[in-house]
């Protein structure tokens, strides 16, 4: 109990320095409510102090910013010093997402919650390997199961918001109109699952048993799970 009193007395006396110290050691954005519970100040005062600190750093032209991202506050290096920071931290070696992974992540972001099969149908390739990479990197997470198919659904994470520097999905650019509607994918998904084979018309000739099914009924849309449409990598490249 004595430790609690001492902690609060110090925090209340020095609100801004206390916030700076906490944010300096945090590896994730911290919300105003959580910060207020630690420093012992009302949430309103903490929010005002955070905004004042952010404005102060910007006015002074510091090498870092205090930003509100993904529902919390965190220190970031300023964009104009990105080259210097990258050179120091990465020393020229950086594992980056491939174009395939970025496209898959974009589909998940705009169509979430979405299954792997639907993402594959939109991109026209099997995305299993890329999805595993996005899951491992914490950019995508499971979001339950589809009621009809039972397939696992996926959505972006708060870490995804943090990495691209926004607080909510509402701030994403208006790109959704350029992606296919889910209704347009039903025929493709049914084709992939083999559910839309047309019924034989009366009097129609029976297919030759010696003829492979693929040759008898060529598809204008290759299956996203075919070998020809599989991503050759797991979604990460090193440069």
UniProtKB/TrEMBL annotation:
<protein>
    <submittedName>
        <fullName>SMC-Scp complex subunit ScpB</fullName>
    </submittedName>
</protein>
<keyword id="KW-0159">Chromosome partition</keyword>
<dbReference type="InterPro" id="IPR036390">
    <property type="entry name" value="WH_DNA-bd_sf"/>
</dbReference>
<keyword id="KW-0963">Cytoplasm</keyword>
<keyword id="KW-0132">Cell division</keyword>
<feature type="compositionally biased region" description="Low complexity">
    <location>
        <begin position="196"/>
        <end position="227"/>
    </location>
</feature>
<feature type="region of interest" description="Disordered">
    <location>
        <begin position="189"/>
        <end position="239"/>
    </location>
</feature>
<dbReference type="Pfam" id="PF04079">
    <property type="entry name" value="SMC_ScpB"/>
</dbReference>
<keyword id="KW-0131">Cell cycle</keyword>
<dbReference type="InterPro" id="IPR036388">
    <property type="entry name" value="WH-like_DNA-bd_sf"/>
</dbReference>
<dbReference type="InterPro" id="IPR005234">
    <property type="entry name" value="ScpB_csome_segregation"/>
</dbReference>
